[in-house]
Prior knowledge:
Blueprint: H1 2-25, H2 40-43, E1 47-50, E2 52-57, E3 63-68, E4 75-78, E5 80-87, E6 90-100, E7 107-124, E8 127-140, E9 143-152, E10 161-163, H3 165-171, E11 172-175, H4 190-203, E12 218-221
Parallel strand pairs: 1-11, 3-10, 4-9, 7-12
Antiparallel strand pairs: 2-3, 2-8, 4-10, 5-6, 6-7, 7-8, 8-9
Amino acid sequence: MQFSIKSLSFAALLGAAALSVPAVAGTPEPVEPPADALLTEDVAGKVIVGWIEKGLILPEQTAVKVKVDSGALTSSMHAVNLERFKRDGKRWVRYDVEVKDADTGETVTLKFERPVFRQITVRGAGGEDYRPVVKMRMCIGNRIYEEQFSLRDRSDMTYPVLLGRRTIEHIGLIDVSSTFLLPLECPEQASEEERQRQQQLREDASLVDDSQVDAPAVEEEDDEQEGGE
């Protein structure tokens, strides 16, 4: 009797499974993607960069290697000899950017002065680091981007410039398997226009955007660890 009950139960299960097959094998109803979904036709119109590219820090003409890293929020630039000062009541910072020319391999020192846009506090393995953030223009491929860069000594890093998510959002997509996808073809007038713009900022304090300089420092995670690639 016990055996027949088990057999009946097994047969009942087989029957139920057979009845459910048409429902499983049927064509599902089409589902509309979310409004913010990235579709293949959208990807075709995006600029695609490798995880390492060449860039020009305007107005200079020295090509530098740039790391594109979505793990960081704010872009970062190597800066030493950093000196804070005020110009016409506005907070500025002057600093040197020591880089290796990506074309010649020679080490050069680029000198900059920029208004401080805001401040960030970065937490890492070595503790907290208080960094100024400035706006700088950089040419990648044949396009110019004005982005926020936190200034720090990156001499322990392989690349002097790191582009974080704030910047990547403006550029496009990353091909993490490739490098140097974009030939550096910066518009000829870009450097001179940037020199003129910086001169205007120095002469007219009303042009300086310091709307966030007095806001509390935003806390961010460290973009890279020491010795990072």
